[in-house]
Specification:
- The structure is a homodimer.
- Chain A has three domains: 44 residues, 434 Repressor (Amino-terminal Domain) (Orthogonal Bundle), CATH 1.10.260; 150 residues, Rossmann fold; 130 residues, Rossmann fold.
- Helix content of chain A is 41%, strand content 12%.
- Chain A has 13 helices and eleven strands.
- In chain A, the strands form three sheets. In chain A, strands 2-1-3-4-5-10 form a six-stranded parallel sheet, sandwiched between helices. Chain A has a three-stranded parallel sheet with strand order 6-7-8. Chain A has a two-stranded antiparallel ribbon with strand order 9-11.
- In chain A, helix 1 packs across helix 2, helix 5 packs across helix 13 and helix 8 packs parallel to helix 9.
- The relative contact order of chain A is 0.12.
- The structure holds a DNA duplex.
Chain lengths: 363, 363
DNA sequence: TTGGCAAATCAAAGCGCTTAGATATCTATT
DNA sequence: AATAGATATCTAAGCGCTTTGATTTGCCAA
C-alpha cells in the first residue's frame, strides 16, 4: 500500500505538465490525441488513480451525494436491529439473520435502494451514513462535509441541525414538508391512501366501527389521521374510539391493543398509521387469541416486505418507495444545477393493496 | 449555498490560529478547555462544517470505506433490474415496484446491508458505488479514489483491474479466494452446505437420481458442484446426468429444464447452484406443468428473500449474508491497521433451510 | 525573582488536484 | 515568407485542512 502515484508522476513519465494530465482525464478534447494516449499509457503503467480528495478540494465539490440512513429500529422507541440491545429482536447472527423479513428490508431500506439505483444510473457516487441515537449529530456533520447534497428521512434530524447543513448544501427530505418548508421534499398522497383503505373497509366489508392507531408521531401520520377522520365523517360515521395516536412507541401501541382486548369491545377494524404499527397490532392480537380478520380487521400503510409474509398477510397502502428515493436524487441534482429555484415538492401516488388482514383473501 | 465558512473564518472569529481550530476537532485534549469552547462557539455560530476533501488530502486518507455493489441483475446474462431494459422484469415503477421480492433484496443486497451496519456501528463512512456493464471500470476507479479500502463481490471486477486497485488500497472480496489469492476474503462453507442439502434429499426423502444445475460460473459454484459430486460418490451414487453447470445464463438454465421435461425423464431432484437458478427452474417447471416437489424436488443455495415467498417455497442453504458484510468491513479495517499481514480469509458456516420445494412441508 | 519544564498555541509547509491566464505551437491566409 | 488566429500546452495560484517543529505562555521550585 505504498502511497500511490500522483499527477506529478504521470506527468513526468508522459513528458507533459500536470495540467495536461488533469485535462486528459477531465477535458479530453482539449488534449491532442497523441498526447492523450501518452498520458493514458503512463497512467496505466503507473497504476494511477486520481485522488477524489484533491479533486474535491480544488473544485469545491466532492462529486458525491449523501444519504443519512437513520435507522428507526435503532431508535429507543422501537426494538433494535443491532445485536443484543433489545431482547425483542434476535441478534443479527442468530439463526444467521433476517429470516422473517421483519428487520429488512424496511421502509427506509427500499427508499435507500431507490436512491442508490438512481445515483448509479447517473454515475453519481453515493455516501450512505448511518445514524445511531448516540452520535447522530456528529455522523451527520461528517457526512455533510463529504457530499454535495444530502437526502434524509423524516424525523431523523432536528430542524436546527438541518438548517445548519442546508446552509451549506442542498438537502431533500422525505415528507415533513410542513416542518422544513425551505427544503425540497418528496411526499406521498397520504390522503388518497387512507381514504382508499378506509372506504374499502366501509363499503366492501361493510364495517362501521373503525379506529385509527399509530405509534410514533410524524407529519405523515398526522395527515393520515386527519384523512381517516374526514373519510369517516364523509360517510356519516365517527371514530369508534378517541385518538389513539400518537401512542409514542411500539410498546404503547401493544398496550392499547391489550386494553382493547380486555375491554372486550373490539372495533370492526384497526386502521394503523404504518405497517410497523400494524405488525405490532397483529402480534399483540395473536398473543391475546384474537382472530384477524374474523374478530377484527387490521390495516397498515407503507407496503413493507414483512407485510407480505406475516400471517394473516397485511392489507395496506403501498408507497412507491423506490421511486421516492429516485426522486430525492433527482431533486438534489436539479438544485445543484439551479440553487436559486424555489423549494420543490414531488408528490407521488400510492396504491391500495388488499390481502388477508382486512378479510379479503382466505387466511 | 454560499461557500461555507472554513477554518480560517472560525479561527478569526475565535481569535486563534487555524491550527488550534483543527486541534479542537481532531485532538480536543491538546486544547485548553476555555479555548476549545470559544472555537466550538465560533464554529457553531458560523455553521462550520469541516471539508472532508481537505482533510482527506492533508491526511492521505479519506476516512471512508467503499463497496462496489455490482448488480448481477444488470448483467446481460440475467434479466435486468433497471427500467424497461429487459421485458422479463417489470419496470421498477410498474405497480409501484418490487412486489414479489424477486428483485430486492437479493444476495448482494443483504451482504451490503451487513457492510452498512458494521460501518455505522464503527462510525465509518461508507461509499456505495454501483457498477453497470458499460462503465464498470470507470466507476470502480472513481470509487477507489474516494476510499481507504474497498469491498467487492465475486466476478464483479476483472482480476487485472482489481490488482491495480489493490496496489493502492486494501481490497476484500467475497469468495473467489483461489483466484485473487493475495486479497483478503470472506468465504462460506459451500462444501458442508451442499453436503447437508444433498444428504437431506438422499436420506430423508430417499431420492437417488439427483442432478446439479447452475447458470453462471463462479468459484463458489465450482465448489458446490464438486461437493455435490463427492456427496453422491460417498453414497455410492452418481449424478443422474452429465454436467449441467455452468449453463451460462438464466435463459440457458431454463432451456436445460425444458429439455428435461420434454425428455420425460426428470430426475428425483434438481440441486441448483444458487437460489437464483432455483427460481428460474421453478418458473420453468411450473410453465411446463410439472409439479414441485411431487414430480421433482428443487433446491437452491443462498437463502434470499424471494425463496421464502415463492410457491412452493424454496428449500435451500442459507448463507450468513449480513455477517459476511460485517466481516468484510472487519477485514478492511484490520488491514488498514496492519498492511503487512498475510492475506486473511474469514470462513463462515451455512445452514440448511428445508421448506416446500424438497417435499418437506405441505405445499 | 528567576530558571526550567510542561502545556498551549502558532507559523508554515505541504497534501494532489483544477483551472485561469500566459505562452508556445500549428494552420491557414495573404 | 510572414502573420493572425486557433489550438495545444504550460505556469502558477490556490482549494481547506493536518501536523511538525518552533514559540509562547503558565506554573512551580529554587
Amino acid at each position: 500500500m505504498a502511497k500511490g502515484p500522483t499527477v506529478y508522476h504521470v506527468a513526468e513519465r508522459a513528458g507533459v505538465s500536470i495540467a495536461t494530465v488533469s485535462f486528459t482525464f477531465r477535458q479530453p478534447d482539449k488534449v491532442k490525441a497523441s498526447t492523450r494516449d501518452a498520458v493514458l499509457a503512463a497512467a496505466e503503467a503507473l497504476g494511477y488513480v486520481p485522488s477524489a480528495s484533491a479533486r474535491g478540494l480544488a473544485r469545491g465539490r466532492t462529486g458525491a451525494l449523501g444519504l443519512f440512513a437513520y435507522d428507526y429500529l435503532l431508535d429507543p422507541a422501537h426494538g433494535r436491529r443491532e445485536e443484543g440491545i433489545a431482547a425483542s429482536v434476535p441478534a443479527p447472527t442468530e439463526g444467521l439473520g433476517n429470516e422473517d423479513l421483519r428487520l429488512f428490508p424496511l421502509y427506509v431500506d427500499e427508499v435507500q435502494r431507490g436512491v442508490e439505483l438512481e445515483c448509479w444510473r447517473r454515475g453519481q457516487a453515493l455516501l450512505v451514513g448511518g445514524g445511531n441515537p448516540e452520535n447522530n449529530e456528529a455522523v451527520l456533520s461528517d457526512i455533510a462535509g463529504r457530499v454535495d447534497g444530502l437526502a434524509i428521512f423524516p424525523r431523523s434530524v432536528p430542524s436546527e441541525a438541518l438548517a445548519r447543513i442546508a446552509r451549506r448544501i442542498p438537502v431533500v427530505e422525505v415528507s415533513e414538508s410542513d416542518l422544513n418548508a425551505d427544503l425540497d421534499h418528496v411526499t406521498v398522497d397520504n390522503e388518497s391512501g387512507i381514504r382508499a383503505i378506509t372506504e374499502h373497509l366501509l363499503t366492501v366489508h361493510g364495517m362501521t366501527r373503525l379506529m385509527f392507531l399509530g405509534g410514533m408521531p410524524s407529519s405523515d401520520n398526522d395527515h393520515r389521521l386527519q384523512a381517516f377522520l374526514r373519510t369517516l365523517h364523509d360517510a356519516g360515521l365517527s371514530s369508534a374510539r378517541g385518538p389513539n395516536y400518537p401512542c409514542g412507541s411500539d410498546e404503547r401501541v401493544a398496550e392499547v391493543v391489550r386494553l382493547l382486548c380486555q375491554g372486550g369491545n373490539l372495533p370492526d377494524a384497526i386502521v394503523c398509521a404504518t405497517d410497523q404499527d400494524a405488525l405490532v397490532v397483529l402480534d399483540t392480537l395473536a398473543a391475546a387469541g384474537v382472530n384477524v380478520p374474523k374478530d377484527v380487521a387490521v390495516t397498515g400503510f407503507d407496503g413493507i416486505a414483512a407485510g407480505r409474509v406475516v400471517r394473516p398477510s397485511l392489507s395496506t397502502v403501498r408507497q412507491p418507495l423506490e421511486q421516492m428515493g429516485r426522486s430525492m436524487v433527482q431533486l438534489l441534482l436539479d438544485r445543484l444545477d439551479n440553487p436559486e429555484k424555489p423549494p420543490a415538492n414531488v408528490h407521488l401516488p400510492v396504491r391500495l393493496v388488499v390481502r388477508e388482514s382486512c378479510g379479503c383473501q382466505a387466511a
